[in-house]
Write a structure and sequence with these properties.
Structural class: alpha/beta
Strand order of the largest sheet: 8-7-6-9-10-12-11
Helix content: 40-55%
Largest sheet: 7 strands, mixed
Number of helices: 19
CATH architecture of the largest domain: 3-Layer(aba) Sandwich
CATH class of the largest domain: Alpha Beta
């Protein structure tokens, strides 16, 4: 095994220490402040971490000025503030511990380093951080998703509420005026709002929504797509499990004078009835859960009129990575999207073939556009943090959302994650 580059950087030692991150509030973040302790696991984690970063274009800086990694002076810097705590968290559960260590300040970015710039090299090497011979054992040793977060009809609403019912005012601080919380589609010098409208028009076109269309939307968000469809002359039924989103979406649709053409329903997709010329679902499949994909696609098929079209927008990941991580319980599950799982394009095709009469007839990929969308969201979130804090959110929450947005941006940058708009139609055999 080649040793990771290690050296003493006098410039690093001369830099002032970063400000101390406040200790997490035990009442809000139980158990987060104190890391688990296991010296054996921590030593293994330390060795594996050094091996993983030895040829990454980053510099990992220890408190004594020791630097590991192959990065040069201009490359991203990761500063270990409390190495012992960091490696204990990493040894206990790498998929969760790395992010939790950032939440509490065990590590931070170096001065002038953007968080997504630092995370991108890690994301680009994600598939190779675990040795191929050890991959087969990961489901036996990794923490798996808890049964109480499975997206049954009863539990799905609670899972959705944990994220989308945080506060409409929170989301308003970093989303654009359309209040659209999915990948935009940029052209030229688009504003974020214009890029979101282009994305919405693209998926409406894939579903062939026009005047007189009867449309079902699965996943209302804050109503931007339903409103855009109604402005085309369509009649829309839109389903949501979020009471907060439903309340604001109704106000926005009423203000636009479209209440007569849009009906908002607090309902699970599995309980929907009727048939529609177009069924649209934008970045909702990620919240379904792998075990429920057959039911989800069967519902699309059942609810679509014979000559209708489905407009589906989905975040995706490579099929081999999807299979390797299908039982993993990650930081994103614990803190952001309980019960979620991202499909691959082959998995979507397999489910359509096995459970429906539908097939993919058009596809548009927007992966790099999501990286830019997330970059702008994170910039707005950080810039508007005083307003977010005034809503009652604390410093740990700020670091959690910075990590979430930066982590996702990095994934799309290096194409570990993708996002596609798909048009589904009846198979012609």
């Amino acid at each position: 095994m080649t040793a990771a580059p290690i050296y003493q950087d006098p410039q690093v030692q001369q830099r002032p220490a970063l400000r101390v991150v406040p200790r997490p509030n035990q009442g809000i973040w139980p158990g987060l402040a104190v890391p688990p302790r296991n010296a054996y696991k921590a030593r293994i984690a330390h060795a594996l971490f050094r091996r993983a970063v030895r040829d990454l274009p980053v510099r990992v800086v220890y408190p004594d000025g020791t630097v590991v990694g192959s990065g040069g002076k201009q490359d991203p810097v990761m500063r270990l503030q409390r190495p012992d705590d960091f490696f204990n968290r990493l040894g206990s559960d790498a998929k969760i511990g790395f992010g939790e260590a950032f939440l509490v300040g065990d590590w931070s970015t170096g001065q002038g380093t953007d968080l997504a710039d630092l995370l991108a090299p890690f994301a680009g090497r994600m598939a190779r951080l675990i040795h191929p011979q050890l991959q087969r054992f990961r489901n036996a040793v990794e923490r798996q998703q808890p049964a109480e977060e499975e997206n049954t009809v009863d539990q799905a609403r609670d899972n959705i509420a944990r994220h989308y019912d945080l506060s409409n005012d929170l989301f308003a601080q970093f989303l654009d005026e359309t209040m659209t919380y999915s990948s935009a589609w940029f052209e030229d010098d688009d504003s974020l709002a214009d890029a979101q409208r282009r994305k919405i028009d693209g998926i409406l076109d894939f579903a062939r929504v026009r005047a007189s269309s009867e449309v079902l939307e699965i996943g209302t968000g804050w109503g931007a797509l339903a409103l855009r469809a109604a402005q085309r002359g369509a009649r829309v039924v839109t389903l949501t499990l979020s009471e907060e989103q439903k309340a604001l979406a109704e106000k926005r649709i009423a203000a636009a004078g479209c209440s007569d053409r849009v009906r908002l329903v607090l309902q699970d997709y599995r309980e929907a009835e009727g048939q529609y010329d177009a069924v649209i679902s934008v970045e909702m499949i990620e919240a379904v859960g792998m075990d429920f994909w057959p039911t989800y696609f069967q519902s699309l098929d059942r609810l679509l009129a014979p000559e209708g079209r489905v407009g589906l927008q989905s975040i995706t990941m490579p099929h081999d990575r999807m299979l390797a991580t299908r039982k993993s319980y990650t930081w994103i599950h614990k803190y952001i999207f309980p019960g979620g799982f991202i499909p691959s394009i082959p998995a979507i095709e397999q489910n359509l073939d096995a459970h429906t009469s539908l097939e993919i007839v058009e596809r548009r990929d927007l992966g790099p556009h999501y990286a830019e969308t997330l970059r702008q969201w994170r910039g707005r979130f950080v810039a508007n943090w005083p307003e977010v804090a005034a809503l009652g959110f604390d410093e740990t929450f700020r670091r959690m959302w910075e990590f979430y947005l930066g982590y996702c941006e990095a994934g799309f940058r290096v194409r570990y994650l993708g996002v596609s708009q798909l048009s589904l139609a009846r198979s012609r055999f």
